[in-house]
Amino acid sequence: MILSTELRGKHMGFAWGQGNIFVYETLFKATGSGSPFIHEVRKDEDIYSPILRKLFNESHHIFVGLQTIREDLPSKNKKPQFVSISKNYRSVIRACMEELQQVAVSTKNAEMSVQYGNQVSILLAIELIWNLCEVLFIDAAPAGSLLLHLLDWVRLHKADVDEKARDVLQSDSPAEHRDYWDVVVSYVLQGRLDEARQMLGKKATLTPAANNIFKMMDNLLSKMPFYNPGGTQTLTEFDVKWRHWHEEVDRCLQDNSFASNQHLEVLCKILLGDEDTLLEHKDLLGTWYHFLVSRLLFCHPTVKPTELHYYAQSCMTMFLDSRSAPEPLDSILLAAFEFDIHQVIKDCSIALNNWWFVAHLTDLLDHCKLLQSHNLHFGSNLREFLLLEYASGLFTHHSLWQLAVDYFDHCLEFGRVYLELQIERVPLDTERKALKVLRICEQRQMSEQVRSICKIMAMRALRNNRLGSALSWSIRAKDAAFATLISERFLQDYCAKGTFSDLDLIDNLGPAMLLSDRLTFLGKYREFHKLYGEKRFKEAAKLLLSLMTAKIAPRSFWMTLLTDALPLLEQKEVIFSADQTYELMFCLEELTSSLNTPSSDSDKSMQEEDVELTKVELLRLALSRNLAMAIVKEGTVET
Amino acid sequence: MENINAKYVSQKISKTRWCPVSYSSLQQPEVFATGSWDNEDNKVSIWSIGNHNNSGLEDGFEGDPQILCEHKHGGDVLDLQFLDQERMVSASSTGAVTIFRYHPNTHTISVLQHWARAHSYPCDNAPCTALVCSSPEIVTVGEDGRIVVFRADQEGAVRVIGEMRTRMLPPHKESSLKLSVVFVRECRQQHNSRGDLPKDHGGFDGDRAPLHCVDRHPNQQHIVATGGQDGMLCVWDVRQGGTPISLMEAHSAEMWEVRFHPTNPDHLFTCSEDGSLLHWETASHSEMPSFLQGGRNSSVISHGALTPAGGNRPLSSAWLCGDSGKGCLETTHMLPSQTMSVNSLDIIGQCLVCGTDGEAIFVNRHVPV
Prior knowledge:
The complex is a heterodimer of chains A (639) and B (369).
Chain A: H1 4-7, E1 12-16, E2 20-25, E3 38-42, H2 50-67, H3 75-106, H4 110-138, H5 145-156, H6 160-170, H7 180-189, H8 193-206, H9 211-223, H10 235-254, H11 262-272, H12 275-280, H13 282-285, H14 288-299, H15 308-319, H16 328-337, H17 341-351, H18 356-367, H19 382-395, H20 401-409, H21 415-423, H22 431-443, H23 447-463, H24 467-477, H25 480-497, H26 503-507, H27 517-533, H28 537-549, H29 558-569, H30 578-595, H31 606-635
Antiparallel strand pairs in A: 1-2, 2-3
Chain B: E1 4-8, E2 12-18, E3 31-37, E4 42-48, E5 66-73, E6 77-82, E7 87-92, E8 97-103, E9 108-115, E10 128-134, E11 137-142, E12 147-151, E13 159-161, H1 177-188, E14 211-216, E15 223-228, E16 232-237, E17 246-249, E18 255-260, E19 267-272, E20 277-282, E21 297-298, E22 302-304, E23 329-333, E24 342-348, E25 351-356, E26 360-364
Antiparallel strand pairs in B: 1-26, 2-3, 3-4, 4-5, 6-7, 7-8, 8-9, 10-11, 11-12, 12-13, 14-15, 15-16, 16-17, 17-22, 18-19, 19-20, 20-23, 21-23, 24-25, 25-26
């Protein structure tokens, strides 16, 4: 984290950032030298891990798919869908875990290796919990299949049995291997009886003298009934059959049939579900939940979901009596066995540093309609609260913020508000990113944000003297005031340089021209130039006049307009009609009378005043000449 | 859609490009490059989908892209093009243009040339938004409105065509400058000594929406397809200019890239912000009825704006067929639904690669062309 040695003994100040804290040295007294560094303390390092990023992206894809499942199907039909979605999530977790494992093994940096190792174990725990939740809550298996699912669950999370078995089998003489009996017992504890029988067969061939007891054991193992959910056998029939088998095993034990072979006797006791024997193999079981499942397998295979928590509690106590307090994982699992979903979620939120797991799990459970609306004190429900927290965390990431948008979309109550606040704070480095952010805002009709983003981009463009770009941004935002400002700049530029920049944009404004008066004027003025360039003088003249008479043109620009009219007046052909000339003269008079007021421009230099006067005189001359010619022309009768 | 897999790569992909293969060998491309964006550390990476030495891969993972090498890149990768089989050029959001060399033997990338401020404002960085290569020359375009020509082996810029006062396009249309760049390239052969831009390269009019992408028909140079902010695909005939030959509502959001298939130009591909990648096909030559073609087909609403000037439509320019109501155009979605924005695509032969904002790369090796 921070270099705490340097900062010890110094005063620290801090400021909150988005998802992080900036910490800096400060001085309460004005003496002494400070340090120019600012340290950033990040709350959540996980989102910056490149491998975990894949988890976030893939799970986002699954999340969006889940939200769009049609609501009109009855819940019964949706269960397989939810189970498959849950499996998808889990497979994503596993894929990430495997990759992390590979990197942890291959990296040379010891510290990173430890860190990866930690992440792997956290993911393992997460997947364990998720799997259990899937079995108990989503799949909601009834008695009978429940145990089978739990067996699968345990088998999935106890992989070292297979490794050991592989070692044993690959050795020269498997039956003599020191782990041989461990493997056999582990198989039996997990209910993998076929594999146990195969292993036993190897020992049996080695000791032909004890052949019959091995055969007996093999017989017992083969006859153990397993419930078949898809079959025709009902639960009661299975129960009866199982009791018969149980009694047979008991008889074998009472007869001391296996007295000659201590290992086989142990196996027999395990098959009977003897707790003490099971507890003797704590190291093979590893965890209390394995103990629980094994015990259920051999004592009570028709366990009902509601009875689970009795067994769970007692098993945990029996298994963990050496340690004082259970670990967080244990209490989470226990809460799951008690079907206390809220407790599970609460404990997970506390134990983990990232909201990813609880947010997605809660969302899935909510879709399965398993969460009662548990209203928190500020009104939103649990699912929404968790999703909002998770998404807000994502938003602080420079790249993953795009994922967060979808999460906010599916939080009905507060999602939009959160999004509005967060989206404005995304740094806009390039136009392309700004376009993407804008698209997000426009799709959700967030006009405020659209306007503010466009204004930021427009100001940036303006600062770099890119007037056309600034104008297009303000048109996109429909920001009339800003468009006016930019049009003024354009016109000022024109007055200064005599040409326009960004002609293509102005030419193609289309209906956007009506956004602001000044912009309309700019467009129309440019049209005038175009008409003039195409030598369509009459139309140009009409346009020019209308610009002044309709008061579209700002007063300050009238001089320029009149000066533009000069060449039209000077043409051989009469362009302005008499009426039009009168109007022009009127405009000129209006202009000069306002210019002659003493308040205006008293500090103008003599030269400029001269120029102004000359211009006005030229105009007057041209206007009168034109008037004369126009009157003559209009008065002439064509013969 | 069965042949497409997502590979999550922990970086948002802004550009994907196949490494060019020599046409004579008729090989399918195996190596592609990607550029990332919006990361704290952006990277240019090279991937391979060739047959690896691991045998026994399941069919589903055959062709899963494996990363060969990567190199740091300052700023977002805004454009990426291959100069030749070993060198590629990238345009950066910091205004820099860099030539990278990929060494296939050692699987490393090294920087050959780096022009740090190819495009800039007086007080800021101007992103370089697009570039076009025609070895050994590279023409780049930036948000500062200038076109700069580089040569791969020279230090400084060869020519700067900047601040075109009379033909200044608004910066949204920066990438449409690619079009003019294409023409510049052609005209340079004629005006070698002068640096003039041809004054009339088809003034395009009536585009209210900014363009984002442009591509030219590989055989018939006058046919151009463009896509823009409103997601409309327009096909233009440059000889006639003015208005597009056909306008099609392709996507519901900005279209980021449009590409003609290089060897089979009856096929066109577009990708967009709305997360879809469409494969357009003019069915002028194929007799196969549409229900036998896989994937989701959707008929296209086309507003034919102009019929070609001549009475006889040349057989091969099916794109200029203004009225597609006769069903001469088919579209297919190539990606599973609900992906995030597809930023880039590239196609050679039957292999299509595309990259998305969901930090995933999709490769399809069996595109029906």
